Description:
Trigger_fact/SurA_dom_sf, 8 helices, globular, single chain, three-stranded antiparallel sheet, mainly alpha
Amino acid sequence: MFGKSVKAAVAAAAAAGVLTGCGAAPKAGTAALVGDDRITVTELSETVRDWREQFRTDPVANEMRANPSNPAQQLGGDSESDLRGALTLLINFEVAEEVADEAGVEITEGRVDAALANLDRRGGAGSLTLATGLPRERTRDLARLVATQIAVMESFGADLTDQTNPATQRAGQRWNELFRRTADGMRIEVNPRYGTYDPGRFEINAVDQRLSRPDPGI
Protein backbone atom coordinates (compact mmCIF):
# COMPACT_ATOMS: atom_id res chain seq x y z
CA MET A 1 0.00 0.00 0.00
CA PHE A 2 2.94 2.31 0.63
CA GLY A 3 4.00 2.03 -3.01
CA LYS A 4 0.47 2.81 -4.08
CA SER A 5 0.54 5.81 -1.77
CA VAL A 6 3.51 7.24 -3.65
CA LYS A 7 1.86 6.44 -6.97
CA ALA A 8 -1.34 8.16 -5.97
CA ALA A 9 0.65 11.12 -4.79
CA VAL A 10 2.34 11.71 -8.11
CA ALA A 11 -0.08 10.24 -10.63
CA ALA A 12 0.54 11.52 -8.02
CA ALA A 13 -4.91 13.51 -6.37
CA ALA A 14 -11.27 19.14 -13.88
CA ALA A 15 -14.40 18.27 -12.11
CA ALA A 16 -17.38 20.65 -12.16
CA GLY A 17 -16.43 22.42 -8.96
CA VAL A 18 -12.82 23.15 -9.97
CA LEU A 19 -11.94 26.12 -12.17
CA THR A 20 -9.23 24.59 -14.34
CA GLY A 21 -8.61 25.98 -17.78
CA CYS A 22 -12.11 27.31 -18.26
CA GLY A 23 -13.25 30.88 -17.95
CA ALA A 24 -10.65 33.51 -17.10
CA ALA A 25 -7.11 32.20 -16.88
CA PRO A 26 -4.83 33.07 -13.96
CA LYS A 27 -2.99 36.34 -14.44
CA ALA A 28 0.29 36.47 -16.33
CA GLY A 29 3.13 34.81 -14.46
CA THR A 30 0.87 32.40 -12.56
CA ALA A 31 1.19 28.67 -13.12
CA ALA A 32 -1.65 27.81 -10.74
CA LEU A 33 -3.78 29.13 -7.92
CA VAL A 34 -4.73 26.83 -5.06
CA GLY A 35 -7.07 28.67 -2.76
CA ASP A 36 -5.20 31.81 -1.71
CA ASP A 37 -1.80 30.36 -2.61
CA ARG A 38 -0.12 31.23 -5.91
CA ILE A 39 2.40 29.03 -7.68
CA THR A 40 4.29 31.24 -10.09
CA VAL A 41 5.68 30.30 -13.48
CA THR A 42 9.11 31.30 -12.20
CA GLU A 43 8.83 29.05 -9.14
CA LEU A 44 7.74 26.14 -11.32
CA SER A 45 10.49 26.70 -13.88
CA GLU A 46 13.18 26.94 -11.19
CA THR A 47 11.84 23.80 -9.52
CA VAL A 48 12.09 21.82 -12.75
CA ARG A 49 15.49 23.32 -13.59
CA ASP A 50 16.88 22.24 -10.19
CA TRP A 51 15.33 18.82 -10.61
CA ARG A 52 16.96 18.27 -13.99
CA GLU A 53 20.41 19.21 -12.68
CA GLN A 54 20.09 16.84 -9.72
CA PHE A 55 18.41 14.03 -11.63
CA ARG A 56 21.21 13.76 -14.20
CA THR A 57 23.73 12.92 -11.49
CA ASP A 58 21.61 10.44 -9.50
CA PRO A 59 21.81 6.92 -11.02
CA VAL A 60 19.34 5.49 -8.48
CA ALA A 61 16.69 8.03 -9.44
CA ASN A 62 17.35 7.33 -13.12
CA GLU A 63 16.91 3.60 -12.56
CA MET A 64 13.65 4.17 -10.65
CA ARG A 65 12.26 6.38 -13.38
CA ALA A 66 13.32 4.00 -16.15
CA ASN A 67 11.51 1.06 -14.52
CA PRO A 68 7.89 0.97 -15.78
CA SER A 69 6.82 -1.10 -12.74
CA ASN A 70 8.11 1.54 -10.33
CA PRO A 71 5.34 3.79 -8.94
CA ALA A 72 7.61 6.81 -9.37
CA GLN A 73 7.59 6.33 -13.14
CA GLN A 74 4.78 8.71 -13.99
CA LEU A 75 6.24 11.60 -15.93
CA GLY A 76 7.21 11.88 -19.56
CA GLY A 77 10.52 12.93 -21.03
CA ASP A 78 9.65 16.22 -22.68
CA SER A 79 9.81 19.68 -21.16
CA GLU A 80 6.06 20.25 -20.96
CA SER A 81 5.37 16.95 -19.21
CA ASP A 82 8.15 17.71 -16.72
CA LEU A 83 6.51 21.03 -15.89
CA ARG A 84 3.07 19.45 -15.75
CA GLY A 85 4.24 16.65 -13.46
CA ALA A 86 5.98 19.01 -11.06
CA LEU A 87 2.98 21.34 -10.96
CA THR A 88 0.72 18.37 -10.24
CA LEU A 89 2.73 17.56 -7.13
CA LEU A 90 2.88 21.17 -5.93
CA ILE A 91 -0.92 21.31 -6.18
CA ASN A 92 -1.39 17.92 -4.52
CA PHE A 93 0.78 18.98 -1.58
CA GLU A 94 -1.67 21.79 -0.84
CA VAL A 95 -4.79 19.72 -1.43
CA ALA A 96 -3.49 17.08 0.98
CA GLU A 97 -3.28 19.65 3.78
CA GLU A 98 -6.98 20.33 3.36
CA VAL A 99 -7.71 16.60 3.20
CA ALA A 100 -6.06 16.11 6.59
CA ASP A 101 -8.21 18.89 8.04
CA GLU A 102 -11.35 17.38 6.53
CA ALA A 103 -10.49 13.99 8.01
CA GLY A 104 -9.64 15.52 11.41
CA VAL A 105 -6.14 14.05 11.29
CA GLU A 106 -3.08 15.88 12.62
CA ILE A 107 0.04 15.35 10.53
CA THR A 108 2.77 15.69 13.13
CA GLU A 109 6.44 16.06 12.32
CA GLY A 110 6.88 12.61 13.82
CA ARG A 111 4.53 11.17 11.21
CA VAL A 112 6.48 12.95 8.49
CA ASP A 113 9.76 11.60 9.92
CA ALA A 114 8.33 8.07 9.82
CA ALA A 115 7.24 8.45 6.20
CA LEU A 116 10.66 9.87 5.34
CA ALA A 117 12.36 6.87 6.94
CA ASN A 118 10.09 4.56 4.97
CA LEU A 119 11.01 6.30 1.75
CA ASP A 120 14.67 5.92 2.66
CA ARG A 121 14.20 2.18 3.07
CA ARG A 122 12.66 1.97 -0.39
CA GLY A 123 15.58 3.29 -2.38
CA GLY A 124 16.38 6.58 -0.70
CA ALA A 125 14.01 9.45 -0.06
CA GLY A 126 16.05 11.94 -2.07
CA SER A 127 16.37 9.64 -5.07
CA LEU A 128 12.69 8.73 -4.97
CA THR A 129 11.77 12.42 -4.89
CA LEU A 130 13.95 12.98 -7.95
CA ALA A 131 12.28 10.03 -9.66
CA THR A 132 8.89 11.67 -9.18
CA GLY A 133 10.10 14.85 -10.90
CA LEU A 134 10.95 17.16 -7.99
CA PRO A 135 14.34 18.26 -6.62
CA ARG A 136 15.68 16.87 -3.34
CA GLU A 137 14.70 19.96 -1.36
CA ARG A 138 11.07 18.86 -1.84
CA THR A 139 11.68 15.48 -0.21
CA ARG A 140 10.02 16.41 3.06
CA ASP A 141 7.01 17.76 1.17
CA LEU A 142 6.65 14.39 -0.56
CA ALA A 143 7.04 12.59 2.76
CA ARG A 144 4.33 14.81 4.27
CA LEU A 145 1.97 13.92 1.44
CA VAL A 146 2.64 10.21 1.94
CA ALA A 147 2.25 10.60 5.72
CA THR A 148 -1.08 12.31 5.15
CA GLN A 149 -2.42 9.47 3.05
CA ILE A 150 -1.22 6.87 5.52
CA ALA A 151 -2.71 8.71 8.50
CA VAL A 152 -6.05 9.32 6.80
CA MET A 153 -6.33 5.75 5.58
CA GLU A 154 -5.50 4.43 9.04
CA SER A 155 -8.25 6.64 10.44
CA PHE A 156 -10.56 4.88 7.97
CA GLY A 157 -9.55 1.48 9.36
CA ALA A 158 -6.75 0.48 6.97
CA ASP A 159 -4.13 -2.10 7.92
CA LEU A 160 -1.24 -0.92 5.79
CA THR A 161 0.72 -4.10 6.45
CA ASP A 162 -1.87 -6.02 4.41
CA GLN A 163 -2.74 -4.56 1.02
CA THR A 164 -5.25 -7.34 0.33
CA ASN A 165 -7.25 -6.64 3.47
CA PRO A 166 -10.77 -5.55 2.41
CA ALA A 167 -10.72 -2.85 5.09
CA THR A 168 -7.49 -1.46 3.64
CA GLN A 169 -8.93 -1.45 0.13
CA ARG A 170 -12.07 0.33 1.34
CA ALA A 171 -9.91 2.88 3.14
CA GLY A 172 -8.00 3.50 -0.08
CA GLN A 173 -11.25 4.13 -1.91
CA ARG A 174 -12.40 6.50 0.81
CA TRP A 175 -9.07 8.37 0.57
CA ASN A 176 -9.51 8.78 -3.18
CA GLU A 177 -13.06 10.01 -2.72
CA LEU A 178 -12.09 12.44 0.03
CA PHE A 179 -9.17 13.80 -1.98
CA ARG A 180 -11.40 14.33 -5.01
CA ARG A 181 -14.17 15.91 -2.98
CA THR A 182 -11.76 18.20 -1.15
CA ALA A 183 -10.10 19.35 -4.37
CA ASP A 184 -13.50 19.94 -5.94
CA GLY A 185 -14.36 22.27 -3.07
CA MET A 186 -11.17 24.28 -3.39
CA ARG A 187 -10.44 27.15 -5.76
CA ILE A 188 -7.91 25.54 -8.09
CA GLU A 189 -7.03 27.34 -11.31
CA VAL A 190 -4.34 26.06 -13.65
CA ASN A 191 -2.82 28.14 -16.42
CA PRO A 192 -4.22 26.61 -19.64
CA ARG A 193 -0.71 26.29 -21.08
CA TYR A 194 -0.16 23.36 -18.68
CA GLY A 195 -3.55 21.68 -19.06
CA THR A 196 -6.38 21.04 -16.61
CA TYR A 197 -6.21 19.63 -13.10
CA ASP A 198 -8.15 16.40 -12.60
CA PRO A 199 -8.45 15.49 -8.89
CA GLY A 200 -9.99 12.15 -9.78
CA ARG A 201 -6.71 11.12 -11.38
CA PHE A 202 -4.39 13.08 -9.05
CA GLU A 203 -2.83 14.82 -12.03
CA ILE A 204 -2.94 17.58 -14.62
CA ASN A 205 -4.30 16.41 -17.95
CA ALA A 206 -2.23 17.44 -20.93
CA VAL A 207 -3.44 20.45 -22.87
CA ASP A 208 -5.07 19.76 -26.22
CA GLN A 209 -2.83 21.71 -28.59
CA ARG A 210 -5.58 21.75 -31.21
CA LEU A 211 -7.85 23.70 -28.90
CA SER A 212 -5.52 25.64 -26.60
CA ARG A 213 -2.64 28.00 -26.98
CA PRO A 214 -0.22 29.26 -24.32
CA ASP A 215 -1.34 32.36 -22.48
CA PRO A 216 0.33 35.34 -24.22
CA GLY A 217 3.07 36.98 -22.22
CA ILE A 218 3.71 33.98 -19.96
